[in-house]
């Protein structure tokens, strides 16, 4: 990544998202997206629906974005995260994780993801299990210490794996959001005051329909 990339580019990306959030919230007060009329809920229908909507793919950080770690070390969903993931699932919007874990947890993303699941599930205290199945095959983790965020490689891998789909990145830290913006992601910092906790689902569908 070119660290000298103009900060004005990042500010423009963040400003555009903020403006679109306001537009979507005003236009769709209920926050609902058009109903999907397909009867088949399998992968084929999901892929078809994604294609029609510009196939947005939404990547997240994990800790303090989708899940919260309490002072006693127990974990649970961050407030609103479970219902937000459910809304994305209902719209057939693909999701993924870009998260730092020790590279020693495995030799492949799948092995490291399996260890991550074990670690989180061992401390989980929430009434609803974490929706690991939503992220199957799209959990990107560092293969070396040099690949740990905020190094750009995990975002680059996510973007390459998403083909021509528009990619979104949501996290609680401004630094990660800014790095993602410089790499072509639609950035959104979650949990900011005076705006939605997460990027509205209707807006993600709108972004997916925009020509690239």
From TrEMBL:
Species in which this protein is naturally found: Streptomyces musisoli
Claim: Signal is one of the keywords in the record: yes
Coiled-coil intervals: none
InterPro entries: HAD-like_sf, HAD_sf
Keyword Signal: yes
Signal peptide: 1-27
The protein, known as: Hydrolase
Alphabetized UniProt keyword annotations: Signal
